[in-house]
Automatic annotation (TrEMBL), chain A:
RNA polymerase sigma factor 70 region 4 type domain: residues covered: 109-158
Keywords: Sigma factor, Transcription, Transcription regulation
Leader sequence segment: none
InterPro entries: RNA_pol_sigma-70-like, RNA_pol_sigma-70_dom, RNA_pol_sigma70_r2, RNA_pol_sigma70_r4_t2, RNA_pol_sigma_r2, RNA_pol_sigma_r3/r4-like, WH-like_DNA-bd_sf
The protein, known as: RNA polymerase sigma-70 factor (ECF subfamily)
One of the Pfam families matching this protein, by short name: Sigma70_r2
From TrEMBL, chain B:
Keyword entries, A-Z: Membrane, Transmembrane, Transmembrane helix
Organism: Lutibacter oceani
Transmembrane feature ranges: 37-55, 75-95, 123-144, 164-190
Official protein name in the record: Uncharacterized protein
Domain of life: Bacteria
Length: 164, 213
C-alpha cells in the first residue's frame, strides 16, 4: 500500500482514536487486553481503509469496524481472559466529582456492563455515545424496534442491579 | 439524577483520560500482524482443503496394485476424476465466500458470512468422509465377494499362518476399528476447532438471530 495513503490514514486515525479506546474500554477490563484489542481494531481499520469511499463519515465507519472487531473478529488471547479487579479501572474518577454513593453506583454499573453479552455491550456503548436507534440498528444489522426493545431490557437490568 | 444519566456523564468525562497515540506508535501498530478469527479460519480451511484432497496422494502405488486384481482400477480412476472436479467446486465456493467477508458490513451480516465460509469447508469435510465410507463399502463388498482373490492378494502364500475364514474376520474387524478411530479423531478435532474458535461467534450470532425472529 502506498505511503501517501498510509500517511492519510494515520493522520485521520490519530484524530479519531478516542473512539477505539472507548470500544476497548467497554470490551476489556485490563490494560493488556485493552492494548491487544486496540491493536487488532487498528489493523482491521487499516486493512479496510483503501476501500473507504467517504460516503459515510469516517467516525461512523470506525464505530462499525471497531464494534465488529470486538464482537466478531477479535480472539481473546489466554492472558487477557483472567479477570481483574474492576476497581482499578475506575481509579480515574476523582472523589470530588461525585459523592460516595454515586461513585459506588458507577462502580457497580461498570461492573454490570462488563458482565453483559458482547452484543449488549455494543448496544450500551452506542447508547453512551449518543447514537440514535437508527444508527444502532444499522451498525448491528438488527431492526430498529428490536434495538429499542433490547436496549430497554439492558437499561432495566442495569437499574435493577443498582436498586434491587 | 437518573443512574444512566450519571453513567453517561461519567463516560463523557473519561474522554480526556484516554491515551493519545503518536503518529509513530500508530505506524508501528498498522504494521503488526492481525490475529483475527477470520485469519485463523482461513488458515485452518486451507489446511483442511489440502489435507483431504492430498490424502489420496499419500497412498503408495504399491497398495493400489491390489485393485488391479479386482478390476477396480478404472472404477477408482473415474471416481477420482469426479472427486477432483467436486473438490475444485468446493475450493471455488470457499474462495468466493471468504472474499465476501467484509469488516464494514453490519455485525449481523459479517457473522453470517464468516459462518457461511466455515460451513463450506465443513460440507467439504462431510463430503470427503461420506465418499471414503461409500468407497470402502463398495470396495469391501467387491473384495469380500471374491474371498479367494482377496486372501491371495493380502496374504500371499499364507505368510500369516491363519485359516481363510479367520483372516477374513480379522480384516473386517480391523477395518471397523480403523473407521471408528478415524471418526473419533475427527470428532475430537472438530470439538476443538469449534470450542476454541467459533463458540463465541456462534453464541453472538444466535443472540442476534433470536432477536430477529
Amino acid at each position: 500500500m502506498n505511503k501517501e495513503l498510509e500517511h492519510k490514514f494515520i493522520s485521520e486515525f490519530q484524530e479519531h482514536q478516542k473512539i477505539i479506546h472507548k470500544v476497548c474500554r467497554i470490551y476489556t477490563n485490563n490494560q493488556e487486553a485493552h492494548n491487544d484489542l486496540f491493536q487488532e481494531i487498528t489493523i482491521q481499520l487499516w486493512k479496510a481503509y483503501p476501500k473507504f469511499r467517504g460516503d459515510s463519515k469516517l467516525s461512523t465507519w470506525m464505530y462499525r469496524i471497531g464494534l465488529n472487531t470486538a464482537i466478531t473478529l477479535y480472539r481473546k488471547s489466554k492472558r487477557t481472559i483472567k479477570t481483574q479487579d474492576f476497581d482499578t479501572v475506575l481509579h480515574r474518577i476523582k472523589s470530588t466529582d461525585y459523592d460516595n454513593t454515586e461513585e459506588e453506583q458507577l462502580k457497580l454499573m461498570y461492573k454490570a456492563i462488563h458482565q453483559l453479552s458482547d452484543i449488549d455491550k455494543g448496544l450500551i456503548f452506542l447508547y453512551l455515545e449518543d447514537k440514535n436507534y437508527k444508527e444502532i440498528s444499522e451498525t448491528l444489522g438488527i431492526s430498529e424496534v428490536n434495538a429499542r426493545v433490547k436496549m430497554n431490557r439492558i437499561k432495566t437490568r442495569l437499574k435493577t442491579i443498582l436498586n434491587p | 439524577m437518573d443512574e444512566l444519566d450519571l453513567l453517561k456523564k461519567d463516560w463523557k468525562k473519561q474522554d480526556a483520560s484516554y491515551p493519545e497515540l503518536s503518529y509513530n506508535e500508530i505506524y508501528k501498530l498498522i504494521h503488526k500482524k492481525s490475529s483475527s478469527i477470520v485469519k485463523w479460519i482461513f488458515i485452518i480451511c486451507i489446511v483442511e482443503l489440502l489435507f483431504w484432497s492430498g490424502l489420496n496422494l499419500l497412498v503408495p502405488e504399491k497398495y493400489l496394485e491390489i485393485y488391479d486384481k479386482f478390476n477396480l482400477r478404472t472404477f477408482l480412476y473415474v471416481t477420482q476424476v469426479i472427486h477432483y472436479s467436486i473438490v475444485f467446486i468446493f475450493i471455488y465456493l470457499f474462495y468466493k465466500n471468504y472474499k465476501a467477508i467484509s469488516v464494514t458490513e453490519t455485525t449481523n451480516l459479517l457473522m453470517q458470512k464468516i459462518i457461511k465460509t466455515r460451513k463450506t469447508v465443513n460440507y467439504y469435510v462431510y463430503y470427503n468422509i461420506a465418499l471414503y465410507v461409500l468407497l470402502s463399502v463398495i470396495v469391501n463388498f467387491i473384495m469380500f465377494s471374491n474371498p479367494e482373490t482377496m486372501i491371495e492378494a493380502l496374504n500371499p502364500n499364507n505368510k500369516i499362518n491363519v485359516s481363510g475364514a479367520k483372516f477374513l474376520n480379522i480384516m473386517l474387524i480391523a477395518q471397523i476399528i480403523a473407521l471408528v478411530v478415524i471418526i473419533g479423531l475427527l470428532w475430537i478435532y472438530y470439538r476443538i476447532i469449534y470450542g476454541i474458535l467459533l463458540k463465541r461467534l456462534n453464541r453472538n450470532y444466535k443472540e442476534l438471530e433470536t432477536l430477529e425472529f
